Protein backbone atom coordinates (compact mmCIF):
# COMPACT_ATOMS: atom_id res chain seq x y z
CA UNK A 1 0.00 0.00 0.00
CA UNK A 2 1.26 3.43 -0.86
CA UNK A 3 1.87 5.53 2.21
CA UNK A 4 -0.37 8.60 2.67
CA UNK A 5 0.89 11.85 1.31
CA UNK A 6 2.53 14.32 3.68
CA UNK A 7 -0.19 16.76 4.93
CA UNK A 8 1.75 19.65 3.54
CA UNK A 9 1.22 18.37 -0.01
CA UNK A 10 -2.58 17.98 0.25
CA UNK A 11 -4.57 20.13 -2.23
CA UNK A 12 -7.99 18.44 -2.39
CA UNK A 13 -10.86 18.08 0.01
CA UNK A 14 -12.42 14.64 0.47
CA UNK A 15 -15.50 13.92 -1.61
CA UNK A 16 -18.79 12.57 -0.34
CA UNK A 17 -18.20 9.38 -2.34
CA UNK A 18 -14.92 8.86 -0.51
CA UNK A 19 -16.56 9.43 2.85
CA UNK A 20 -19.39 6.99 2.02
CA UNK A 21 -16.89 4.35 0.93
CA UNK A 22 -14.81 4.71 4.07
CA UNK A 23 -17.88 4.78 6.35
CA UNK A 24 -19.09 1.51 4.81
CA UNK A 25 -15.70 -0.15 5.29
CA UNK A 26 -15.51 1.16 8.86
CA UNK A 27 -18.90 -0.37 9.60
CA UNK A 28 -18.31 -3.79 8.02
CA UNK A 29 -14.49 -4.06 8.27
CA UNK A 30 -14.81 -6.01 5.04
CA UNK A 31 -14.31 -4.58 1.55
CA UNK A 32 -16.64 -6.98 -0.28
CA UNK A 33 -19.53 -6.47 2.13
CA UNK A 34 -18.99 -2.68 2.16
CA UNK A 35 -18.92 -2.56 -1.64
CA UNK A 36 -22.17 -4.55 -1.87
CA UNK A 37 -23.91 -2.23 0.61
CA UNK A 38 -23.24 0.97 -1.31
CA UNK A 39 -23.43 -0.52 -4.80
CA UNK A 40 -19.79 0.04 -5.73
CA UNK A 41 -17.27 -2.38 -7.18
CA UNK A 42 -14.63 -3.59 -4.76
CA UNK A 43 -11.71 -2.02 -6.69
CA UNK A 44 -13.55 1.32 -6.87
CA UNK A 45 -14.26 1.15 -3.13
CA UNK A 46 -10.62 0.45 -2.33
CA UNK A 47 -9.54 3.29 -4.60
CA UNK A 48 -11.98 5.71 -2.92
CA UNK A 49 -10.65 4.86 0.55
CA UNK A 50 -7.05 5.24 -0.62
CA UNK A 51 -7.92 8.62 -2.17
CA UNK A 52 -9.46 9.71 1.13
CA UNK A 53 -6.32 8.74 3.01
CA UNK A 54 -4.27 10.71 0.54
CA UNK A 55 -6.54 13.74 0.79
CA UNK A 56 -6.48 13.70 4.61
CA UNK A 57 -2.82 12.75 4.92
CA UNK A 58 -3.46 9.96 7.45
CA UNK A 59 -3.71 6.18 7.33
CA UNK A 60 -7.26 5.15 8.15
CA UNK A 61 -7.09 1.37 7.76
CA UNK A 62 -4.70 -1.45 8.53
CA UNK A 63 -5.03 -3.96 5.70
CA UNK A 64 -3.82 -7.55 5.75
CA UNK A 65 -4.70 -10.48 3.57
CA UNK A 66 -7.06 -11.77 6.23
CA UNK A 67 -8.70 -8.73 7.85
CA UNK A 68 -9.27 -4.98 7.88
CA UNK A 69 -8.82 -2.89 11.02
CA UNK A 70 -9.35 0.80 11.73
CA UNK A 71 -6.28 2.75 12.75
CA UNK A 72 -6.62 5.12 15.74
CA UNK A 73 -7.00 7.99 13.27
CA UNK A 74 -9.50 5.90 11.29
CA UNK A 75 -11.72 5.46 14.33
CA UNK A 76 -11.91 9.20 14.88
CA UNK A 77 -12.43 9.97 11.19
CA UNK A 78 -15.12 7.26 10.89
CA UNK A 79 -17.19 8.90 13.64
CA UNK A 80 -16.83 12.30 12.00
CA UNK A 81 -17.60 10.86 8.53
CA UNK A 82 -20.86 9.40 9.81
CA UNK A 83 -21.82 12.80 11.24
CA UNK A 84 -21.05 14.51 7.94
CA UNK A 85 -23.04 11.97 5.92
CA UNK A 86 -26.01 12.25 8.28
CA UNK A 87 -25.93 16.04 7.92
CA UNK A 88 -25.81 15.72 4.14
CA UNK A 89 -28.80 13.37 4.30
CA UNK A 90 -30.72 15.92 6.34
CA UNK A 91 -29.76 18.60 3.83
CA UNK A 92 -31.09 16.49 0.94
CA UNK A 93 -34.35 15.83 2.78
CA UNK A 94 -34.74 19.55 3.46
CA UNK A 95 -34.11 20.38 -0.19
CA UNK A 96 -36.60 17.72 -1.30
CA UNK A 97 -39.23 19.20 1.02
CA UNK A 98 -38.50 22.67 -0.35
CA UNK A 99 -38.92 21.38 -3.91
CA UNK A 100 -42.26 19.83 -3.06
CA UNK A 101 -45.00 22.46 -3.49
CA UNK A 102 -47.29 23.39 -0.62
CA UNK A 103 -45.11 22.03 2.15
CA UNK A 104 -43.36 23.82 4.99
CA UNK A 105 -44.28 27.26 6.27
CA UNK A 106 -46.25 29.91 4.37
CA UNK A 107 -46.32 33.29 6.13
CA UNK A 108 -49.44 35.07 4.86
CA UNK A 109 -50.09 38.74 5.58
CA UNK A 110 -53.70 39.97 5.48
CA UNK A 111 -55.23 43.44 5.87
CA UNK A 112 -57.87 43.90 8.61
CA UNK A 113 -60.69 44.69 6.16
CA UNK A 114 -60.14 41.33 4.47
CA UNK A 115 -59.07 38.95 7.23
CA UNK A 116 -62.40 38.26 9.01
CA UNK A 117 -64.32 37.75 5.78
CA UNK A 118 -61.92 35.79 3.56
CA UNK A 119 -59.81 33.83 6.02
CA UNK A 120 -62.51 31.15 6.53
CA UNK A 121 -62.29 30.38 2.81
CA UNK A 122 -58.48 30.48 2.82
CA UNK A 123 -58.17 28.25 5.89
CA UNK A 124 -60.67 25.73 4.54
CA UNK A 125 -58.77 25.55 1.24
CA UNK A 126 -55.45 24.99 3.00
CA UNK A 127 -56.92 22.37 5.33
CA UNK A 128 -58.65 20.41 2.57
CA UNK A 129 -56.20 20.80 -0.32
CA UNK A 130 -52.78 21.52 1.18
CA UNK A 131 -52.60 19.57 4.46
CA UNK A 132 -48.79 19.66 4.52
CA UNK A 133 -48.70 23.45 4.34
CA UNK A 134 -48.11 25.21 7.67
CA UNK A 135 -50.00 28.49 7.29
CA UNK A 136 -49.03 31.39 9.56
CA UNK A 137 -51.36 34.42 9.37
CA UNK A 138 -50.31 37.99 10.19
CA UNK A 139 -53.01 40.69 10.23
CA UNK A 140 -51.50 44.14 9.65
CA UNK A 141 -52.15 47.32 7.71
CA UNK A 142 -50.94 47.60 4.13
CA UNK A 143 -47.76 49.58 4.81
CA UNK A 144 -46.56 47.13 7.44
CA UNK A 145 -47.38 44.15 5.22
CA UNK A 146 -45.39 45.57 2.31
CA UNK A 147 -42.39 46.17 4.58
CA UNK A 148 -42.65 42.61 5.85
CA UNK A 149 -42.83 41.22 2.32
CA UNK A 150 -39.83 43.17 1.07
CA UNK A 151 -37.75 42.32 4.15
CA UNK A 152 -38.54 38.61 3.89
CA UNK A 153 -40.62 38.45 7.09
CA UNK A 154 -43.71 37.53 5.03
CA UNK A 155 -44.04 35.32 1.95
CA UNK A 156 -47.40 36.31 0.51
CA UNK A 157 -49.99 39.05 1.06
CA UNK A 158 -53.77 39.11 0.71
CA UNK A 159 -54.89 42.70 0.30
CA UNK A 160 -56.43 45.42 -1.87
CA UNK A 161 -54.55 46.54 -4.97
CA UNK A 162 -53.05 48.27 -6.88
CA UNK A 163 -50.07 48.76 -4.60
CA UNK A 164 -47.78 50.73 -6.88
CA UNK A 165 -44.74 48.79 -5.63
CA UNK A 166 -42.32 48.00 -8.49
CA UNK A 167 -40.73 45.02 -6.74
CA UNK A 168 -44.08 43.35 -5.97
CA UNK A 169 -46.08 41.13 -8.32
CA UNK A 170 -49.86 41.13 -7.91
CA UNK A 171 -52.02 38.06 -8.59
CA UNK A 172 -55.61 39.39 -8.87
CA UNK A 173 -58.36 37.32 -7.27
CA UNK A 174 -61.62 39.25 -7.53
CA UNK A 175 -63.40 42.61 -7.65
CA UNK A 176 -66.11 43.46 -5.14
CA UNK A 177 -68.56 46.34 -4.94
CA UNK A 178 -68.96 48.75 -2.07
CA UNK A 179 -72.36 48.97 -0.40
CA UNK A 180 -73.82 51.95 1.41
CA UNK A 181 -74.66 51.18 5.05
CA UNK A 182 -76.96 53.64 6.80
CA UNK A 183 -79.36 53.90 9.75
CA UNK A 184 -82.74 52.20 9.20
CA UNK A 185 -84.61 55.44 8.49
CA UNK A 186 -82.17 56.72 5.90
CA UNK A 187 -83.75 57.82 2.65
CA UNK A 188 -81.39 55.72 0.53
CA UNK A 189 -82.04 52.50 2.42
CA UNK A 190 -83.16 49.60 0.25
CA UNK A 191 -82.38 51.28 -3.04
CA UNK A 192 -80.48 49.48 -5.78
CA UNK A 193 -79.69 52.43 -8.02
CA UNK A 194 -77.89 54.92 -5.80
CA UNK A 195 -75.89 57.42 -7.86
CA UNK A 196 -72.34 58.05 -6.67
CA UNK A 197 -73.17 61.74 -6.49
CA UNK A 198 -75.33 60.98 -3.44
CA UNK A 199 -72.12 60.75 -1.41
CA UNK A 200 -71.32 64.41 -1.94
CA UNK A 201 -73.08 65.78 1.11
CA UNK A 202 -73.50 62.83 3.49
CA UNK A 203 -72.04 62.50 6.98
CA UNK A 204 -69.49 59.88 6.07
CA UNK A 205 -67.84 57.65 8.68
CA UNK A 206 -64.48 56.15 7.77
CA UNK A 207 -61.71 54.08 9.29
CA UNK A 208 -58.65 55.59 10.91
CA UNK A 209 -55.61 56.73 8.96
CA UNK A 210 -53.49 53.90 7.63
CA UNK A 211 -56.34 51.67 6.46
CA UNK A 212 -56.40 51.30 2.70
CA UNK A 213 -60.21 51.08 2.83
CA UNK A 214 -60.30 54.65 4.11
CA UNK A 215 -58.26 55.83 1.14
CA UNK A 216 -60.44 53.88 -1.27
CA UNK A 217 -63.60 55.39 0.18
CA UNK A 218 -62.15 58.88 -0.07
CA UNK A 219 -61.22 58.24 -3.70
CA UNK A 220 -64.80 57.19 -4.40
CA UNK A 221 -66.09 60.35 -2.75
CA UNK A 222 -63.74 62.54 -4.79
CA UNK A 223 -64.92 60.82 -7.97
CA UNK A 224 -68.49 61.56 -6.88
CA UNK A 225 -67.64 65.26 -6.65
CA UNK A 226 -67.39 65.50 -2.89
CA UNK A 227 -65.60 68.64 -1.79
CA UNK A 228 -62.08 67.97 -0.43
CA UNK A 229 -63.03 69.98 2.65
CA UNK A 230 -66.29 68.17 3.36
CA UNK A 231 -66.38 66.89 6.95
CA UNK A 232 -65.46 63.24 7.50
CA UNK A 233 -65.88 61.75 10.95
CA UNK A 234 -62.96 59.40 11.62
CA UNK A 235 -63.33 57.51 14.86
CA UNK A 236 -63.19 53.77 14.13
CA UNK A 237 -60.25 51.39 14.12
CA UNK A 238 -62.27 48.53 12.59
CA UNK A 239 -65.34 47.85 10.51
CA UNK A 240 -67.35 46.43 13.42
CA UNK A 241 -67.01 49.69 15.35
CA UNK A 242 -67.74 51.68 12.22
CA UNK A 243 -71.02 49.82 11.71
CA UNK A 244 -72.02 50.39 15.32
CA UNK A 245 -71.50 54.13 14.86
CA UNK A 246 -73.75 54.03 11.82
CA UNK A 247 -76.41 52.14 13.78
CA UNK A 248 -76.21 54.86 16.40
CA UNK A 249 -77.18 57.47 13.83
CA UNK A 250 -73.82 59.22 13.49
CA UNK A 251 -73.64 58.91 9.72
CA UNK A 252 -73.24 56.44 6.86
CA UNK A 253 -70.35 54.33 5.66
CA UNK A 254 -69.19 52.13 2.81
CA UNK A 255 -68.60 48.41 3.28
CA UNK A 256 -67.12 45.91 0.83
CA UNK A 257 -69.64 43.23 -0.15
CA UNK A 258 -67.65 40.42 1.51
CA UNK A 259 -67.98 42.19 4.88
CA UNK A 260 -71.67 43.00 4.61
CA UNK A 261 -73.26 39.83 5.98
CA UNK A 262 -70.84 39.49 8.90
CA UNK A 263 -71.09 43.13 9.98
CA UNK A 264 -74.79 43.90 9.47
CA UNK A 265 -76.76 40.65 9.78
CA UNK A 266 -77.37 40.91 13.53
CA UNK A 267 -78.18 44.61 13.74
CA UNK A 268 -81.75 45.72 13.01
CA UNK A 269 -80.75 49.37 13.22
CA UNK A 270 -79.09 49.27 9.82
CA UNK A 271 -80.18 49.42 6.22
CA UNK A 272 -78.20 48.95 3.04
CA UNK A 273 -78.27 50.45 -0.42
CA UNK A 274 -76.57 49.46 -3.66
CA UNK A 275 -75.02 51.77 -6.19
CA UNK A 276 -76.02 52.04 -9.82
CA UNK A 277 -73.66 50.43 -12.32
CA UNK A 278 -70.78 50.82 -12.49
CA UNK A 279 -70.72 50.56 -8.71
CA UNK A 280 -67.62 51.70 -6.82
CA UNK A 281 -65.47 48.66 -6.13
CA UNK A 282 -62.09 47.40 -4.98
CA UNK A 283 -59.82 44.63 -6.24
CA UNK A 284 -58.39 41.99 -3.91
CA UNK A 285 -55.22 40.13 -4.86
CA UNK A 286 -52.35 38.07 -3.61
CA UNK A 287 -49.01 39.87 -3.70
CA UNK A 288 -45.52 38.37 -3.73
CA UNK A 289 -41.98 39.53 -4.25
CA UNK A 290 -41.23 39.73 -7.96
CA UNK A 291 -39.13 36.72 -8.93
CA UNK A 292 -39.96 34.85 -5.71
CA UNK A 293 -38.53 31.34 -5.54
CA UNK A 294 -42.04 29.98 -4.91
CA UNK A 295 -43.69 31.97 -7.70
CA UNK A 296 -45.15 28.91 -9.44
CA UNK A 297 -46.57 27.66 -6.16
CA UNK A 298 -48.11 31.04 -5.36
CA UNK A 299 -49.68 31.29 -8.83
CA UNK A 300 -51.26 27.86 -8.35
CA UNK A 301 -52.47 28.93 -4.90
CA UNK A 302 -54.08 32.04 -6.43
CA UNK A 303 -55.89 29.90 -9.00
CA UNK A 304 -57.19 27.60 -6.26
CA UNK A 305 -58.36 30.61 -4.23
CA UNK A 306 -60.26 32.02 -7.20
CA UNK A 307 -62.10 28.74 -7.52
CA UNK A 308 -62.81 28.57 -3.79
CA UNK A 309 -64.16 32.14 -3.73
CA UNK A 310 -66.72 31.70 -6.50
CA UNK A 311 -69.47 31.38 -3.91
CA UNK A 312 -68.75 34.85 -2.47
CA UNK A 313 -70.54 38.01 -3.66
CA UNK A 314 -67.62 39.01 -5.86
CA UNK A 315 -66.52 39.01 -9.51
CA UNK A 316 -63.65 36.58 -10.00
CA UNK A 317 -60.74 37.89 -12.06
CA UNK A 318 -59.54 35.05 -14.30
UniProtKB/TrEMBL annotation:
CDD domains the UniProt entry points to: PBP2_OxyR (cd08411)
UniProt KW keywords: Activator, DNA-binding, Transcription, Transcription regulation
Domain HTH lysR-type: start-end pairs: 14-71
Pfam family, one: HTH_1
PROSITE patterns found in the cross-reference section: HTH_LYSR
GO cellular component, one term: protein-DNA complex
Signal peptide (from-to): none
Coiled coil feature spans: none
Alphabetized GO MF terms: DNA binding; DNA-binding transcription factor activity
InterPro entries (UniProt xref): LysR_HTH_N, LysR_subst-bd, WH-like_DNA-bd_sf, WH_DNA-bd_sf
Family: Belongs to the LysR transcriptional regulatory family.
UniProt-recorded name of the protein: Probable hydrogen peroxide-inducible genes activator
Organism: Streptomyces paromomycinus
Lineage: Bacteria, Bacillati, Actinomycetota, Actinomycetes, Kitasatosporales
Amino acid sequence: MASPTNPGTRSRQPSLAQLRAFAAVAEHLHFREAAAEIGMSQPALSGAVSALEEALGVQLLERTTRRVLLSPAGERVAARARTVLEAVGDLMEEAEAARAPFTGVLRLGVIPTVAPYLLPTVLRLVHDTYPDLELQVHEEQTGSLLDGLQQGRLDLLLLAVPLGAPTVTELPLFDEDFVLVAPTDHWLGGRGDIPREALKDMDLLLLDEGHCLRDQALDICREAGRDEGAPVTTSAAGLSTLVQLVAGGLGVTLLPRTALRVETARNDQLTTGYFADPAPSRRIALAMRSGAARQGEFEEFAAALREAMKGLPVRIVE
